[in-house]
Amino acid sequence: MASRVTQPTTTGTQIRRAIVVAYLVLLVAWPVSLVVLKTFEGGLTNLQTAFADPSVVFALQMTVYVAVWAVAINTVFGVGISLLLVRYDFPGRGVLSALIDLPLSVSPVVVGLALLLAYGGSEGMFGPTLESAGLQVAFAPAGMIMATAFVSLPLVIRELVPVLHEIGTEQEQAATSLGARPWQTFWRITLPSIRWALVYGVVLSLARSLGEFGAVKIVSGNVAEQTQTATLVVEQKYQDFEQGSAYATSFLLAAIAVAALVVVTVLRPKENLDGD
Amino acid sequence: MTVDTTLAPGAVRKRRSRSATSLTRSSGLGLGIALTWFSLLVLIPLALVVIQSVDGGWATFRDTVTSPQTAAALRLTVTQAFVVTLVNVVMGTLIAWVLVRDQFPGKRLLEVIIDIPFALPTIVAGLVLLSLYGPQSPIGINVANTERSVFLALLFVTLPFVVRTVEPVLQELDLEVEEAAASLGASRFTTLRRILLPALAPAITAGAALSFARGISEYGSLVLLSGNLPMKTEVASVRIMSYIENGNAAAAASVATILLVVALAAIVVLQVLSSVVARRG
User: Fold this and answer.
1) I need a surface site. Which of B91, B152, B180, B191 has the fewest CB within 10 A?
2) B117 touching A (Cβ < 8 Å)
3) B14: chain A residues, CB-CB within 8 Å
4) Computed from CA positions of residues A228, A231, A234, A235, in that sequence, does the dihedral angle turn out positive or negative?
């Protein structure tokens, strides 16, 4: 990738370059920068107002709580299922591999509806049973974690599967033949070689989880200071004409997500695509 | 780099050793746990949506999807997602091309910009677009509460899909093949049609499928931007939301089922198209 022959700059190249830059500026860069400007319009006032608002602070804490749980679940599940899909043969593997991507094509609103139908307190399929056992899922953090885990489920897996295919099993086999136990092989051989893909997948899941809106809106019931997350607060503040707080909270969410992506893009070593 | 690196299996990828073993006792247990979780979280709830949609008989389903407001919402959603996907196929491929083949200062910044729509919470995406294309637009363009706001929002949130699927394939492509074609007298257009397009087709269609599926299911970015006007700017997801809020789960499930079916159909159609283009090259 690095050693591409640079093509001569022709008029065509310049036109293409100009179109792409103009398109991205108009669609993304300019609007995003306007939100940043609006956040800091009166200096730090907007951020201070937002942080002085208990419902905003609560929502931010709730968002972090839900996102961390969802990402933790997806990481464990993602590593496990990726290893199973790549390293083992079992009936239905192809079907499972296709189904894993399903959450990417499902509307967040449908996700919310689906979880309510399964775990809703009064009419859900499992809801009443779980509630009599003392576990409330719908309109409670458990449901919000499930909704968030649902929408970001494929992200870790999609990063890991190609890398696992790529690294092959020779080193693992060597470790095993030298007497390493399965856990040792995993910690010492497999994990180090999928490290970057895993970090990248985790960061993508985190960004997606912090920003989930539709599914959580339905499953949480959207009650301020009880089940409201940061994205839900943005909507409410905007509609209540507290635009300063809406912009400040948006800015915070966007800054975290973008910063995480940039850090990982910079840190991640470039794969050597040409050599083999 | 975000959305996908897993194209159609075996598209470009080299597989060094494919030594899958059959399940051991511990991996079997792991598979059991993973499948249980996946079923509880994804499969059973989604199946319940489909079941719920026909639970009250076909009449409920038919009445819901043929009611003028819901039909209009479905039509708007599918049309806008389709148009946006077409734009993405052209612009996404062009952007990927420039990012891979062109060198200029600030290219790294463009790479980050491409990922922003993916990282940004959807509600924030709506707010972001509203700041440049809303009532207080500094350039005097106000699309808020019009059909164009739906188009704009979908264009924003689906931006990375085609770019990120085409980019890695373009990087793998040998420049020599194109040079050989050119040296044998092929015009730029012939090279594009006979060499590049067939090679890129699977990636473009994979990106297009993701983009379309995301487009028809979008909700968050439209909430603040489109105004959700019935018969005019209301999309299918918003319809589902209001059915849920009114406690009409059967109707909500009916619209949701349509969305699921359309998404699946689009993925299948694009797969077929892709293999046709790739073969004809």
Assistant:
1) B180
2) yes
3) 166, 276
4) negative
